[in-house]
Amino acid sequence: MKQICVFAGSSTGHNPAYTEEAKKLGKAFAEKNIELVYGGAKSGLMGVLADSILQQGGKVTGVMPTELFDREIVHTELSSFIEVDTMHERKAKMSELADGYIALPGGFGTFEELFETVSWAQIGLHKKPVALFNIEEYYTPLKRLIEHAIEAGFVPESNRSILVDSSDPYELLDKLNTYPSSDQ
C-alpha cells in the first residue's frame, strides 16, 4: 500500500485518546512510507493525523473543494494539495489516489464518506480494503448495527468482510495490506 485515504473528524472529540491514537497512526504511516490522502484541512483529527505524518517526514496529499476554503482551515504545509470544484470531485479524486481507506472517529461527514466507500465496494466499483480505526471502541456500535442489518437480511452475509477493524494502528495497516481483494 502506497497511499491510503483517511476519513476523520473535523474536531478532535472529547476523549484525548482519539488525538493520541491519531498521532500513533501517523507515526505508523511515516514508518511504513505510506502517503496520506485526505480532505486537506488543518482542523480536528484530520489535522492531527496530517501533522503527525509530516513531523516524521512522511507525505500528505490534501484534496479540498474551493467552496470549503472559508469553512475549513486549509492545511498549508502539505506535501501536495489538490483543489477541486465540488465535494463529489473531492471524493472521486481521493478514491482515485487511494489503495485503501481508513475511517477514524468522526461525525456525519466521516460516516457519509465511509458508507459511500463501503457501498462502492459492495456493488463492485472497487476492491480496495476499507477499515475502521476503532479507537476506544468508537465504531463498536456501528459494527453491531452492521451485524443487525445482516441478521435482518438487508446486508448479505458475504459483505461482512468488506470492513476490517482494529484499535491498534500497526495491526490495522497489516490488515489493509493483507486484505484478500486488494487492488494493490
Automatic annotation (TrEMBL):
Keywords from the named record: Cytokinin biosynthesis, Hydrolase
One of the record's GO molecular function terms: hydrolase activity, hydrolyzing N-glycosyl compounds
Top class in the EC scheme: hydrolase
Any one biological process term the GO annotation gives: cytokinin biosynthetic process
One GO cellular component term noted in the UniProt record for this chain: cytosol
Domain of life assignment: Bacteria
Record carries keyword Hydrolase: yes
Signal peptide limits: none
EC number, as in UniProt: 3.2.2.n1
Gene3D superfamilies noted in UniProt: 3.40.50.450
NCBIfam families: Rossman fold protein, TIGR00730 family (TIGR00730)
Family: Belongs to the LOG family.
Name of the molecule in the record: Cytokinin riboside 5'-monophosphate phosphoribohydrolase
Source species of the chain: Halobacillus halophilus (strain ATCC 35676 / DSM 2266 / JCM 20832 / KCTC 3685 / LMG 17431 / NBRC 102448 / NCIMB 2269)
